[in-house]
C-alpha cells in the first residue's frame, strides 16, 4: 500500500518527494489528490502552520528558507553561537574564520600587513634602555619592574629612583636578626617595591656575629666548642670566656625558660670587601642613606 | 629547566619585581649569601617568583665556617640575603631579555602565522 501511494505521488509531482514514513503516507492517502501536492509543500514549508517536522526530517528535499546558513551539530552549539561566544556571530569574524580554514598556505598579504606593524618594534626595544616599552598593537602600556621604577615619585622609593637616575652613591645598612650587621656603599642600578636592590661597585663592611646565643643550649655548646678552633676570628679565648659565662647563665635558668633567654651576640671584627654586582633582598635592609657630595 | 614559569601568577610577580633578574641568571655560577650568614656557591638551576633558589654542584659554607659540598641545594626565598651576580652579566639587558620571554609566552596563542621568535 505504501508503495502504491508513493508511485502515484511521483507521477503527479515533478520533484519526487517520497516519504518512507508510514504515518505520513497514511496521512497523505486520506487527502484528495489535488491538495496532496500543496499539502506536502506546506508541510515542508517551515513557516507554514501545517509544517510537519517528521515529514521534513525524512524527506530528501526540504525547501530551506536560508540554504547557505551555518550548520550546527546540536542545540547547545546553536545556543553558544547565539550568545556571541568568541565574537563568532560577527560578520568580520566569519571572514576571519574562512581565512583560517585556508591556514595551510601562508597568506603573504597578511604577513606583509603584520610586518608593517611590527617592523619598528625590534629596533625600538633595543634603542630604549630602561624606558617604557611601546607596543605596536593597541595594548595598554607594559608594566614591568623597569617601568615601575619611575612611578614612585614623591615617596621614598621615588627618592631611590632619583639615585638610580643620577647615579648617586648610596649607603645601605644591613640588618641581622636584631640590630645592625653592616653597611654597604655603592650605586643602585635597579630596585623594586620590596626594596630589593641591585648594586654596582659595592663596598661591603660588615661584622659577622660569632655566636648567637638564642634558643638551644645544645647548639651553643657545640658552637662554643668550635669557637676555640677558629683562628680567623678575633680573640677566641676572650669570646670563649664570655660565651661560657653566658652558658652558665643559661644553665641556671629552667628548661622551660629556654626559649626566653636573652640573646647575647658576640661580634667579630669588621670585614670589608668589594663586590662588583650584588643583589640585596629587601627584607635585610635597615635603612638607605644617600651620600650626596 | 623552565625558562619561564608556567603559572600566570608567578609570571606576574616575577615581572614586577627584581626576581626576574635572578631568573635571568639560570645556569650561572654564583654565590648566595644566606640570612644566617652561611654562603652557598653553585650553579643556579632555577629561581621562582618567591626567590626560592635551586643550586647544583654547591660548595656550602655554613655560618660557622665549615665547608661541605652538595649536588643539589634548595634555598627558601626568605633566607636569601645577597645574591652575587657574575661580573660579566649586564643587568638591564638580562632583565629586558627575561621580560621579552614573558611577553612571548603571553602572546603565544594569538597569531601563529607570524612568529615573534626570530
Structure description:
The complex is a heterodimer of chains A (293) and B (118). Chain A is of the alpha+beta class. Chain A has twelve helices and five strands. Chain A has helices spanning 2-12, 22-30, 33-44, 53-58, 75-82, 91-101, 108-118, 121-127, 145-148, 156-166, 217-227, 236-252; strands spanning 169-175, 180-191, 197-213, 264-280, 285-290. Chain A has a five-stranded antiparallel β-sheet with strand order 4-3-2-1-5. In chain A, α11 (217-227) runs antiparallel to α12 (236-252). The model of chain A is unreliable at 14-29, 123-135 and 212-259 (pLDDT under 50). Chain B is of the alpha+beta class and 118 residues long. Helix content of chain B is 25%, strand content 32%. Chain B contains three helices and five strands. In chain B, β2 and β3 form a beta hairpin. Chain B is elongated. The two termini of chain B are 21 Å apart. The chains are: A alpha+beta (293), B alpha+beta (118).
- Strand runs of chain B, count: 5
In helices, the fraction of residues of chain B equals 10-25%
Strand content of chain B: 25-35%
Strands ordered across the widest β-sheet of chain A: 4-3-2-1-5
Structural class of chain B: alpha+beta
Structural key phrases:
heterodimer; A: 293 residues; alpha+beta; five-stranded antiparallel β-sheet; B: 118 residues; 5 strands
Topology (elements, then pairings):
The complex is a heterodimer of chains A (293) and B (118).
Chain A: H1 2-12, H2 22-30, H3 33-44, H4 53-58, H5 75-82, H6 91-101, H7 108-118, H8 121-127, H9 145-148, H10 156-166, E1 169-175, E2 180-191, E3 197-213, H11 217-227, H12 236-252, E4 264-280, E5 285-290
Antiparallel strand pairs in A: 1-2, 1-5, 2-3, 3-4
Chain B: H1 8-15, H2 19-23, E1 29-34, E2 39-47, E3 53-61, E4 67-75, E5 80-84, H3 91-106
Antiparallel strand pairs in B: 1-2, 1-5, 2-3, 3-4
Amino acid at each position: 500500500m505504501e508503495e502504491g501511494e508513493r508511485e502515484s505521488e511521483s507521477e503527479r509531482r515533478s520533484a519526487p518527494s517520497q516519504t518512507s514514513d508510514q504515518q505520513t503516507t497514511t496521512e497523505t492517502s486520506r487527502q484528495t489528490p489535488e491538495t496532496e501536492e500543496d499539502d506536502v509543500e506546506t508541510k515542508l514549508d517551515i513557516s507554514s502552520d501545517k509544517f510537519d517536522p517528521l515529514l521534513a526530517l525524512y524527506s530528501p528535499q526540504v525547501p530551506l528558507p536560508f540554504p547557505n546558513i551555518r550548520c550546527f551539530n546540536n542545540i547547545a552549539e546553536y545556543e553558544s553561537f547565539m550568545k556571541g561566544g568568541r565574537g563568532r556571530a560577527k560578520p568580520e569574524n566569519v571572514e576571519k574564520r574562512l581565512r583560517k580554514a585556508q591556514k595551510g598556505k601562508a597568506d603573504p598579504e597578511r604577513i606583509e600587513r603584520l610586518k608593517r606593524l611590527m617592523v619598528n618594534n625590534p629596533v625600538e626595544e633595543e634603542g630604549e634602555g630602561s624606558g617604557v616599552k611601546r607596543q605596536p598593537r593597541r595594548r595598554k602600556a607594559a608594566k614591568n619592574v623597569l617601568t615601575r621604577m619611575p612611578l614612585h615619585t614623591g615617596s621614598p622609593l621615588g627618592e631611590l629612583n632619583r639615585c638610580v637616575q643620577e647615579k648617586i652613591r648610596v649607603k645601605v645598612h644591613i640588618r641581622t636578626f636584631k640590630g645592625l650587621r653592616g653597611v654597604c656603599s655603592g650605586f643602585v642600578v635597579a630596585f623594586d617595591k620590596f626594596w630589593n636592590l641591585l648594586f654596582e661597585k659595592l663596598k661591603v663592611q660588615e661584622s659577622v656575629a660569632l655566636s648567637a646565643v638564642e634558643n638551644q643550649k645544645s647548639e651553643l655548646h657545640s658552637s662554643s666548642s668550635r669557637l676555640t678552633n677558629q683562628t680567623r676570628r678575633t680573640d677566641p679565648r676572650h669570646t670563649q670566656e664570655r660565651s661560657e659565662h653566658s652558658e652558665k647563665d643559661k644553665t641556671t635558668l629552667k628548661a622551660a625558660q629556654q626559649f626566653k633567654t636573652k640573646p647575647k651576640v658576640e661580634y667579630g671584627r669588621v670585614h670589608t670587601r668589594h663586590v662588583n654586582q650584588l643583589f640585596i633582598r629587601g627584607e635585610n635592609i635597615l635603612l638607605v642613606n644617600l651620600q650626596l657630595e | 629547566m623552565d625558562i619561564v614559569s608556567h603559572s600566570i601568577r608567578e609570571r606576574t610577580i616575577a615581572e614586577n619585581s627584581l626576581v626576574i633578574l635572578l631568573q635571568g641568571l639560570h645556569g650561572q655560577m654564583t654565590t648566595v649569601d644566606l640570612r644566617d650568614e652561611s654562603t652557598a656557591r653553585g650553579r643556579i638551576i632555577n629561581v621562582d617568583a618567591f626567590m626560592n633558589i635551586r643550586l647544583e654542584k654547591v660548595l656550602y659554607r655554613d655560618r660557622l665556617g665549615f665547608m661541605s659540598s652538595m649536588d643539589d641545594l634548595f634555598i627558601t626565598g626568605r633566607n636569601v640575603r645577597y645574591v652575587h651576580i657574575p661580573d660579566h652579566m649586564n643587568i638591564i639587558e638580562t632583565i629586558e631579555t627575561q621580560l621579552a620571554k614573558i611577553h612571548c609566552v603571553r602572546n603565544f596563542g594569538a597569531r601563529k602565522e607570524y612568529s615573534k621568535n626570530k
